[in-house]
């Protein structure tokens, strides 16, 4: 799944969009140092849906995950997770770089039987010879276990310097991913001011906004001044009424609830979160996620258009794009809404990812529009949203032959004419 600065993932129901996001969620969860043995217990925010054995496609007993970063070196992570005797195990994991001969490390001695001990060969940056090994647990991502120089032999100075830095880089890169699929009912409650992490369902919204909004004494200082401006810009043009400010109700134990000041028909009033519309709460959650995400991280927002009027889609996307550029964020959105696709900035259209089920084997496929053969031929037929709603996009991607296929068809046609004895003139 290629990711641009603003990537919109589209596709029919059951095409596989949630599977792709779930794979990202699993990578992020592993980067936080969790053990595979605890995945079945779920918790407040379950990592995967259904039973653990349902992770595997069509009766197979392993699957692979990985990512490519934009770093200059050691930019490819891949791992394979397998199912053995009712438990999950990491069977293989490596970090390497395209064109490189020796990986940074490679789990090449998987555990056997009831054991969870695995052997990892690491790069000692010496020519030739067998690479040294360290023992790790196959219940955790290997890169979460190689972040200390003490893991490597004392004489391997470069390994001690390089491998922990790369390991921590992947930990930060993946654990910082923010996932958001807001549930308005969870955002209408008070939250404690020390809860500054927005949960995936939007819980803790009021306390996160309280932290971002700051105090009146900080209102003219950075970053509070910019954060206040961005929050208001996100929500001001979405509802019909004018939003002019935020404030917070405070409970006896330090809990807070956000209020919006709205003006409608010449009347001004304060409305707290318990009375705000679903759409307004969702937009507040999106603003909170974008402003609280670590700079340079990936923000994943599912079904972003839920509760947002189609006429407001362009403004919402424009605010997302602007804030993503300012904070160097990458944003991945999923949607079914044609109006939102029609509101996409022209620069974001090539990065749209279409998700569909392969007619031959039923597996989900992800294809970026810019990688589709003859995509200009598709886009001249109308706005992207209309192409999706009329089924033209789906048929074009699944059935349209690429240039190479057309050349092969032309050669086959010419060959058939020659065999039939007809004269061929070009």
Automatic annotation (TrEMBL):
| Signal sequence residues | none
One GO MF annotation is:
ATP binding
The ATPase AAA-type core domain extends over 6-86, 227-342
InterPro entries in the cross-refs: ATPase_AAA_core, P-loop_NTPase, RecF-like
Output the SUPFAM superfamilies linked to this UniProt entry: P-loop containing nucleoside triphosphate hydrolases (SSF52540)
Q: Which residues form a coiled coil?
A: none
Top-level division of the source organism's lineage: Bacteria
- Which PANTHER family does the entry link to? ATPASE AAA-TYPE CORE DOMAIN-CONTAINING PROTEIN, ATPASE-LIKE PROTEIN
Protein name as catalogued:
ATPase AAA-type core domain-containing protein
Q: What is the lineage of its organism?
A: Bacteria, Pseudomonadati, Pseudomonadota, Betaproteobacteria, Neisseriales
